[in-house]
Amino acid sequence: MAADTSSEQRFSVSHFNEDDFKTGGLRSYSSYRDLGVALATNGAATAHVIRMTAPFSEAFSERHRHDIQLQLVYVLKGWFKTDFEGEGIHTMKEGSCWVQPPNIKHTVIGWSDDCELLEIILPAEHETIVEE
After folding, report:
1. Are 111 and 78 in contact (CB under 8 A)?
2. Phi, psi at residue 60, to the nearest 5°?
3. Residue among 123, 114, 130 at smallest CA distance from 38
4. What phi, psi does 4 have (nearest 5°)?
5. CA dist 12 to 9, 15, 50, 108, 128, Å?
6. What gap in Å lies between CA 129 and CA 132, rounded to an integer?
7. Are 32 and 25 in contact (CB under 8 A)?
8. Beta-ladder partners of 74
9. pTM of the full structure
């Protein structure tokens, strides 16, 4: 049975506001809208909407992995293409959802100009390791 963590969480609501999209996150080619999950869960999880802000370039393709417990991504708009270690190349389209196991190596290899993703990660603070 899972531990009861409800006492460690608080109620949170995030309404859409275009001004909430901020740059300066993990990816230089994206802006992020923090949904308040990290604050509400005391860092147990994070959730944000990622909006691609630059056309795809091969310069953005960098093999990497995330030291996480869970990473779930859902395509809100457009499409997103990634090469996953042991799984091959997948093009995710609007409505596609995937879970990336902890430390799976992957390389982003394309996206549409209108691409927006919802990403949920446990825990909120985690390391991204670039593969050589």
Report:
1. yes
2. -85, -10
3. 123
4. -85, 110
5. 9, 10, 19, 31, 27
6. 9
7. yes
8. 97, 118
9. 0.87
Residues 92, 76: Cα–Cα separation, whole Å: 10
User: Count of residues for the chain?
Assistant: 132
Structure tokens at 90: 């997948």
Residue 5: pLDDT band (50, 70, 90) is low
**Lateral strand order in the sheet of 64-67:** 88-93, 79-84, 106-111, 64-67, 127-130
pLDDT tens string 54-109: 999 888 888 999 999 999 999 999 999 999 999 999 999 999 999 999 999 999 99
Q: Residues 45, 35: contact at Cβ < 8 Å?
A: no
Domains (range + CATH), the chain = 24-130 (2.60.120.10)
Give backbone dihedrals phi and psi of 103, rounded to 5 degrees, phi first: 65, 15
CA atoms within 13 A on the CB side of 110: 9
